[in-house]
Amino acid sequence: MTLPPRLTHLLKLADQGPTLRAALAEEVADLLAAWPPDYPPEMRSVCETLFARIMDEADTPTRARLHIRRNGASCELDGRALVAAARKGTGLRETLAQLLDVSEAAAEHILRDASGKSLAVAARASNLRRCGFSALALLVHPKTDRAGAHTLLDVYDDLTAAEAARIQRSWRGRPASTE
């Protein structure tokens, strides 16, 4: 089988080891996002495996960036990158800032908002599913009791995607505020 030049290039990058992982990751993400119809379908599974290996080795912000790059900014995020960063206790602010395209100061404000509304807005604006938001909210606000957890979920449930997107746009370039 003759491989298209782009696939040959990716396979060469894969053989170069970790020094070229970032370039490889971005190219593979782009390729999987728009698989050309004339490319051999059996090579897609090779690229999927390669992408999964790269994702396993990447840090949390890189995984989040690659996930969005591969699936598009409007994809429904599964929250693994945010939840993983919250569990580790590192990189959450940076990951959130990158996913929302806001400053790290705005992301910090979102995380410190005791009401949880900013976090709910961030989750809705990122298309984070309810179960992902629930896990994230409990990790960000660990002292929340059962009633408080239900209140956070109610805030999330009451937000529309359009309202969350409007608030997210207002966060760009200034600290986060849900007003």
Describe this structure in words.
The protein has helices spanning 5-15, 21-33, 41-57, 60-71, 80-88, 92-100, 104-112, 117-125, 130-140, 146-158, 161-171. The chain is mainly alpha-helical and 179 residues long.
The share of residues in helices is 55-70%
If helices are DSSP runs of H or I spanning 4 or more residues, what is the number of helices?
A: 11
Form type: elongated
Give the helices and strands as they follow along the chain.
Answer: HHHHHHHHHHH
Structure at a glance:
With 179 residues, the chain is mainly α. It has eleven helices and no strands.
Name a few traits of the molecule.
179 residues; mainly alpha; 0% strand; elongated; 69% helix
Task: Give the SSE layout.
Elements: H1 5-15, H2 21-33, H3 41-57, H4 60-71, H5 80-88, H6 92-100, H7 104-112, H8 117-125, H9 130-140, H10 146-158, H11 161-171
